[in-house]
Design goal:
single chain; M1 Pyruvate Kinase, Domain 3; three-stranded antiparallel β-sheet; 13 strands; 28% strand
Length: 211
C-alpha cells in the first residue's frame, strides 16, 4: 500500500546561486507531527523564489522512496527524505504512470497532479554540483507538483489512495519531455491543454501554440 514516508518543510536559508546568496526553502526536513496543508501548501514551509515556484497550481511537491533508491546507486549514498526539496516523500507512486489530473487522497488532504518538477540552479546548488540540472533531467525521475483540492492535515505513515485521471490525460513524463522538446507537435500541446496542467506550463504551451 502506498504511504507517506515523510512530510517535509523548509525554512528560508541563504544558498549560493552562482556568486550570489539567495534565500531558499529547498532544504526541507521531516516534520515530527501532523502538518496542516492549505491551498498554498504546507504550514511552516517557505519558498524563496515565488515567481518560479509554488502557487496554487504547484502547492505541494511530491517525490518517492522508489526514486531515491535509484538515486542511491547513482549518487553513492542513500538520500534522506526531503533532499530534493519535496514536501511529501511517498513510498512509491504505484504501478501505473502518473498522469496530469490524477488525484491523491493523503490523510485528510486531496491533491491533484498538475506538472512535473523542472530542475533549476537552486537544485544544483543544493546538491553542490553545477551539472546536477543535467543529471536530474537525464535521470527522468522528476516527481510531480500538485494543487490542493481539499485542505487538511498530513502525517508520516498516512495511507495514500489514488484516483486515476482519464487514460488520454498526458503522463507526467510526456509533459516533462514536452518542456524540453521545443518541436513537440502542436496537436500534442493542444491535447495537454485539455487537462488541468499548472498555470506556468499552460502559459508556455499556449505561447508555443500561438507562435
Amino acid at each position: 500500500m502506498l504511504r507517506v514516508e515523510s512530510v517535509n518543510i523548509g525554512h528560508l536559508q541563504p544558498i549560493m546561486i552562482g556568486q550570489q546568496p539567495k534565500p531558499s526553502g529547498i532544504d526541507k526536513r521531516p516534520a515530527s507531527g501532523p502538518v496542516r496543508v492549505g491551498p498554498l501548501g504546507l504550514d511552516g514551509d517557505h519558498i524563496g523564489d515565488a515567481r518560479h515556484h509554488g502557487g496554487l497550481d504547484q502547492a505541494v511537491y511530491v517525490y518517492s522512496r522508489t526514486d531515491y533508491d535509484v538515486w542511491a546507486v547513482m549518487l553513492g549514498f542513500t538520500p534522506s527524505a526531503g533532499l530534493f526539496g519535496e514536501n511529501l516523500t511517498l513510498t512509491d507512486f504505484g504501478t501505473d504512470p502518473v498522469r496530469i489530473g490524477d488525484r491523491y487522497r493523503v490523510g485528510g488532504v486531496l491533491l491533484e497532479v498538475s506538472a512535473p518538477r523542472i530542475p533549476c540552479a537552486t537544485l544544483a546548488a543544493r546538491m553542490n554540483d553545477p551539472q546536477f540540472v543535467r543529471t536530474f533531467t537525464q535521470a527522468r525521475r522528476p516527481g510531480f507538483y500538485t494543487r490542493v483540492l481539499e485542505p487538511g492535515e498530513i502525517s508520516a505513515g498516512d495511507a495514500v489512495q489514488v484516483r486515476s485521471a482519464p487514460h488520454d490525460a498526458p503522463t507526467v513524463m510526456e509533459m516533462f519531455d514536452a518542456f524540453y522538446d521545443r518541436q513537440t507537435p502542436r496537436d500534442v500541446l493542444a491535447r495537454m491543454l485539455r487537462f488541468p496542467v499548472a498555470e506556468r506550463a499552460r502559459a508556455d504551451f499556449e505561447t508555443r501554440l500561438n507562435s
